[in-house]
Write a structure and sequence with these properties.
By secondary structure, this protein is α/β, with parallel strands linked by helices. The protein has helices at 2-27, 32-44, 47-59, 66-77, 86-97, 99-121, 127-139, 156-179, 204-225, 236-250, 272-285, 300-310, 320-336, 350-362, 380-388, 402-417, 422-428, 433-436, 447-452; strands at 143-148, 187-190, 228-231, 261-266, 290-295, 341-346, 370-375, 393-399. Strand 2 (187-190), helix 9 (204-225) and strand 3 form a beta-alpha-beta unit. 41% of the residues are buried. The structure holds flavin-adenine dinucleotide (FAD). Flavin-adenine dinucleotide (FAD) binds next to strand 4, strand 5, helix 13 and strand 7.
Length: 458
């Protein structure tokens, strides 16, 4: 049985890759995303340059004048490992020979550079842009979830404004869709830490209560419009409170029958399996099903650094195959619990996607009952290939200003330039399809290790 499944995963993966490659070849020279990826790859292949540019991007919103922007850029690029790059040395020679007039030019160029990265991963700034984006997606037979950029707010005023922006987004885009007779279910993703300035895992009750006060406003508007609300999961120490918030909403008298609700499970956490079982238990107790978006986890670098700094145990796996294998195991468990739990696979990894397609097929679950979700600006050819294969596809589309979006932007750049990233390994073109699609369990050291990622508790 296991062998038949693995064969089907391989077959599905090969088909998906072949379709994506074909789409890529067809559109490459004319597609903006092709060139964006080339530039990103060229700049970010150089580790020292990547680190300094990320530091620069982090400070960028605080730099108001061209001189400040240029001054900081020079400072960051003066790192001796970065100066080994020919292009950077050339830049410095030009700066020295034409210091004054070029200041403005360089200032403009750096602004353009940062906004290049921002536009690659951020879909727009206003509800109108969201509406136009939705229309473009409808033409491609895709849907989306809108995320307003921002996390970890610093004041209660900011938290109120943030919640209100979601209500406004739902209302405005909902109205535009209605005016244009467009049939489309609105879908938003929200980050709990944006709804309370004192979001503290050590005060879970108070934190959950305050977050829920604001989340209720969004839920009410969503219910009025039949829209979907997904609660994203952030760093590890926020996860428990996030589950508490989700539970409060899911069992609230007003929303306990509301099916358009979802939350996230991160497979990279060492305790992802017991956590998933708790989520399933919650779904069994609820009258109406909800959706789980299964992801690997976006805070990997943060979790490692944070745990090392505090001398705590690292909560995430440190070998990539372990995260991938856990992802497949959780895919099985969640699909085994369909329809109490509906599953959305949040991944760009063709092996992880194919595994879910093959396992759902084996279980007799219809294609329309398993959704695939990918991030805006990443894996566009894979998105189109998934649609060609007749599966529902949703794009996670962040909206808003660059300043609150910086943390999101840095996470995406880190992810896209990591040597272990599936998308990067694929775009480097050094791996054959078989290698890209290999079973993560083949990398386990022994049978004992393998078993941890296979067995499913009843
Ligand atoms: C629609 C959508 C919504 C998302 N929402 C959330 C969310 O709410 N919360 C959240 O945390 N993330 C979220 N993510 C991001 C997601 O967790 C991943 O960071 C991202 O999708 C990359 O994983 P992948 O399967 O696409 O790619 P892959 O390249 O297969 O996997 C990369 C991931 O593997 C893990 N990893 C990398 N190196 C190692 C290592 N050495 N050891 C162990 N594990 C490693 C990391 O999680 C890394 O992100 C979302 C992603 C999508 C597509």
């Amino acid at each position: 049985m296991e062998n038949t499944l693995q064969l089907e995963v391989l077959e599905t993966g090969r088909e998906l890759l072949a379709r994506a490659d074909k789409i890529n070849r067809r559109s490459c020279l004319f597609s903006r995303s092709y060139w964006e990826e080339k530039v990103l790859d060229m700049v970010m292949r150089r580790e020292a340059l990547k680190i300094q540019l990320l530091r620069y991007i982090d400070t960028f919103p605080a730099l108001k004048t061209y001189n400040q922007r240029l001054g900081h850029l020079v400072q960051y690029l003066s790192d001796e490992r970065v100066l080994k790059e020919k292009i950077i040395r050339l830049l410095f020679i030009l700066l020295k020979t034409h210091p004054i007039p070029l200041n403005i030019l360089y200032g403009l160029a750096t602004s353009a550079g940062v906004s290049f990265f921002a536009h690659k991963f951020i879909a727009g700034t206003s509800p109108r842009e969201a509406f136009h984006y939705i229309n473009r997606l409808i033409r491609k037979q895709m849907t989306c979830t809108l995320d307003i950029l921002g996390e970890a707010v610093l004041s209660e005023k900011e938290a109120d404004e943030y919640a209100q922006r979601y209500v406004d987004l739902l209302e405005n885009v909902g109205r535009m869709l209605k005016e244009n007779s467009t049939s489309f279910q609105l879908n938003v993703s929200v980050k709990p830490s944006s709804f309370y300035s004192q979001f503290k895992p050590s005060a879970p009750e108070k934190t959950a209560d305050r977050v829920c006060e604001r989340l209720y406003l969004i839920m009410k508007k969503a219910k009025e419009l039949n829209a979907f609300v997904n609660l994203d999961v952030e760093q590890y120490d926020y996860r428990e409170v996030t589950l508490r918030i989700f539970e409060k909403i899911a069992f609230d008298d007003e929303f306990k029958d509301y099916p358009h609700l979802g939350m996230v499970i991160q497979a990279y956490l060492k305790d992802a399996l017991p956590f998933t079982l708790r989520v399933i238990e919650l779904a069994r107790r609820r009258q109406s099903p909800f959706t789980v978006r299964l992801v690997k986890g976006a805070y990997w670098d943060y979790e490692i650094i944070n745990a090392r700094q505090l001398e705590w145990e690292i909560p995430v796996y440190v070998e990539k195959w372990q995260t991938d294998a856990r992802f497949e195991q959780l895919t099985r468990i969640l699909l085994d619990n369909f329809p109490q739990v509906r599953l959305a696979i949040g991944s760009h990894n063709v092996r992880s996607i194919s595994y879910a397609m093959a396992y759902a097929h084996k279980k007799g679950i219809r294609k329309s009952d398993l959704e695939f979700q990918l991030l805006y600006g990443m894996g566009d050819d894979i998105k189109a290939a998934i649609v060609e294969m007749g599966c529902p596809l949703r794009v996670y589309a962040p909206y808003g200003d660059l300043i609150p979006g910086m943390a999101y932007l840095v996470r995406r750049i880190l992810e896209n330039t990591s040597n272990e990233s599936f998308l990067r390994q694929r775009s480097a073109g050094r791996m054959a399809a078989e290698e890209l699609l290999c079973n993560p369990l083949d990398l386990a050291k022994d049978e004992n290790e393998r078993t941890q990622f296979i067995s499913i508790p009843q």
